[in-house]
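Tutorial sheet, problem 5. The four components below are modelled jointly, 424 residues in total.
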Amino acid sequence: MPATKSSTKAPCHTTPKNVVQPHKTSLLKRINRIEGQVRGIGKMVEGDRYCMDILTQISAIRSALDATAIQILEDHTRGCVSGAIQSGKGDAAIAELISVVKKFAR
Amino acid sequence: MPATKSSTKAPCHTTPKNVVQPHKTSLLKRINRIEGQVRGIGKMVEGDRYCMDILTQISAIRSALDATAIQILEDHTRGCVSGAIQSGKGDAAIAELISVVKKFAR
Amino acid sequence: MPATKSSTKAPCHTTPKNVVQPHKTSLLKRINRIEGQVRGIGKMVEGDRYCMDILTQISAIRSALDATAIQILEDHTRGCVSGAIQSGKGDAAIAELISVVKKFAR
Amino acid sequence: MPATKSSTKAPCHTTPKNVVQPHKTSLLKRINRIEGQVRGIGKMVEGDRYCMDILTQISAIRSALDATAIQILEDHTRGCVSGAIQSGKGDAAIAELISVVKKFAR
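Model answer (C-alpha cells):
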C-alpha cells in the first residue's frame, strides 16, 4: 500500500481504516522503547527489586504512553479532524475526538 | 519475627532492596500481558490502523498499568509500610509512600 | 460572517477575547454547584468529619470539574477551532487546543 | 467537643466519625481559596472570557484540589492508618486507603 504524499498534516489520506501516521518512524521508536520499559519492570519484579523503584518506573512508562497518545491525538486533529471539518463532516469527527480526550482526561 | 515467602502481608521480608512481591506470579503475568499490548499498538501503527483505535488501545494499556501499580502499592503498604510503622520507623515510609501516590494522582 | 449568540456551534463569535459560551446557562449552573460542593468540604473539615468522606467528596468535585472542562473543550473545538480551520488558521488553534488537552491528560 | 492535644500525627483522636484535621487551619484556608477560584471561573464564563483561559484556570483548580487531597491523605495515613496498624486493625484501614487512592490515581 502506497504511503501518502508525506504530508505532515493529513494522516487520513484515504479512509479512517487506513491511516499512515505522519510521525510513523518516531512513533514506532517510542513504542518500541516503551515495550522495553515494560519488559524492564518485569525484570525488576523478577529480581525482587524495591516496590518504590518499580512504581517510579511504572509512572515513567505512563508519562511516555501519555506523550505518545498526545502525539497521535495532535496528528489526528491536524489530519482527520481538520479534513472532516473542511469537508463539512466535522460534527462526527469532533464527537469522536472528544470521546477519546475524555478517556485520557478522566 | 520471621516473615515467610508465602505471607501475603509482608513483601519487605529482608531489606528494601530485596522485596519478594507477594503476588509475584500474577504480577509477572500482568506485566507480560501489558508488554504484549504495547507491542500490539506498535503493530497497529505499522499497519496504518485508525488513530482512534490506537488511542483507545493506549488508554486500555494505561488502565492496566495503573491497576498493576495499585496492586504493588497496596502490597507495599501492607508489607513494608506496616512493618515500618510497627517498628517505629513509620515517618520515612509514609513520606515515601505519599511521594509515589502524588506521581499517580498528579 | 456574523455568527449569532444562539449558535451552538460557534462560541467564537467575535474575537478570542469575547466568547459567549453556547451552553452558558447550564455551565453557570454547574459551576455554581461545584462552588457549593467546595464550600461543603470546608464545612466537613470544620465539622471534623472523617478524612475518607472528605476525600470521596473531593474526588466527586474533581469529576464535576473535569466534566465542565470537557464541555467547554468540546464547544471550543466545535466553535473556535472549527472556525479557525475553515478560515485557514487551523494550525495555531490546534496547537493551543492540544496544549490544553495535555494539562488535563497529564 | 475538645480538640486534640495538637498532635500532627493523629487526626483519628476519637472515632473515625470525629477527626480533627492536624492542618485544619491551613486546610480551611486552601479550601476557601479554591472556592474563590471556582467563583472566579463563573465570572469568566459570565464575562464571556476566552475558552482557553477558562480551561487553564480549571486546570489550576484541579491541581489545588489534588494538593489538598494529598495533604488530607498524608495526615490520614500518619494518623488513622498508622494507629489502626499499631492496634492490629491495619487490614481494613489499608483497604480503605487504597480504595481512595484508586479514585485519585484512576
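Marking note: Confidence is low (pLDDT under 50) at residues 1-9 of chain B. Full credit if you identified this.
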